Amino acid sequence: MAKWKVWVDRDVCIGDAICASLCPDVFEMDDEGKSFAKVEIVGEDLIDCVNEAAEACPVSCIHVEQIE
Predict the structure, then answer these.
(1) In angstroms, how far is the first alpha carbon of the chain from the final one?
(2) Alpha-carbon gap, residue 59 to 42, rounded angstroms
(3) How many domains does the structure of the chain reveal?
(4) What integer pLDDT is reported at residue 1 of this predicted model?
(5) Quick one: DSSP state of residue 62?
(6) Which of 3, 37, 41, 42 could form a disulfide with 46 if both were Cys (CB 3.0 to 4.6 A apart)?
(7) Would the pLDDT of 34 be above 90?
(8) How far apart are CA 13 and CA 60, in angstroms?
(9) What's a Pfam family this protein contains (predicted)?
(10) What is residue 67's DSSP assignment?
(11) Which domain holds residue 7?
C-alpha cells in the first residue's frame, strides 16, 4: 500500500484555511493562524483529500511526496 509524506511550508502559508476545510483529518490551523499537517504520513484513504487541498492552496505551500 502506498504512503505519502505531507508537510506545509509555514513561511509561505497565508492562513486561508482552505486545506483544513477540505481535509480536516490531515490539516489544522494553529494559534498563529497558519496551517500544519497533524498527520505527516498518509495512506490511500486520505491522499485524495490531501491532493485536493494542495491544489486548492492559493500559495502552493502544501507538499506531498510519495515515500512507499
Answers:
(1) 7
(2) 22
(3) 1
(4) 87
(5) E
(6) 42
(7) yes
(8) 8
(9) Fer4_13
(10) -
(11) 3-66
All three cell numbers of 23, joined, read 481535509
How far is it, in rounded angstroms, from Cα 19 to Cα 52? 8
Residue entry with cell 477540505: 22
Domain harbouring 28, CATH code: 3.30.70.20
Cβ-contact 23, 35 below 8 angstroms: no
In degrees rounded to 5, what are phi and psi of residue 62? -95, 130
Query: Is residue 2 very low, low, confident or very high in pLDDT (cuts 50, 70, 90)?
Result: very high
Question: Can you spell out the DSSP letters for 5-61?
Answer: EEEE-TTT-----HHHHH-TTTEEE-TTS-EEES-SEEETTTHHHHHHHHHH-TT--
Strand order through the sheet with 62-66: 41-43, 3-8, 62-66
User: Residue 27 — very low, low, confident or very high, per pLDDT cuts 50/70/90?
Assistant: very high
Q: What does pLDDT average to over the chain?
A: 97
